[in-house]
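User: Okay, second chain of the day. Same drill as before: sequence in, structure tokens out.
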Amino acid sequence: MILHSVLQAIGLFFATNIDDIIVLSLFFARGAGQRGATARILVGQYLGFVGILAAAVLVSLGAGAFLPPDVIPYFGLIPLALGLWAAWQAWRHRHEDDDDDEVKIEGKKVAVWAVAGVTFANGGDNIGVYVPVFLTVGPAAVVAYCLVFLALVAVLVIVAKFIATRRPIAEILERWEHILFPLVL
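Assistant: Same drill. Structure tokens below.
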């Protein structure tokens, strides 16, 4: 039973965080050559992800206490709604100039708070997926999921750093960052 929960947690983590590899790779590309960038990105990722987990656990506790069990499966529609909302916003603002965002971030050190903020902001889909799962498993499984997720955050950061430090990929990230960053978010 424990192995089953751990394997489910691993699958769920990678399914909901594959987009973070691109975002983290972009942070590593921005932080290339900056002393301590890896540590700041790692700490920021952990802070943002702890916020995501806290929100998911709190929402699932509240939803589990006040909602009838028949409603809980519909929480799975939250990620779909968030994705459609993001697509609508991207389409609505497709002709707007995004140079303002680039100016704010370009040329500055990669900051812990920036990574944490982007991680949390990008975690709406995670929360939308984690809540129905947390509602259907017991408290011990929720703790196990959270521990597995927290262990995998480090793996995610390592993979992103590996990707961002490959020369051809780093060049692509640098060239297309202004498109990739908003697109992934």
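The radius of gyration is 18 Å.

User: Thanks, on to the next one.
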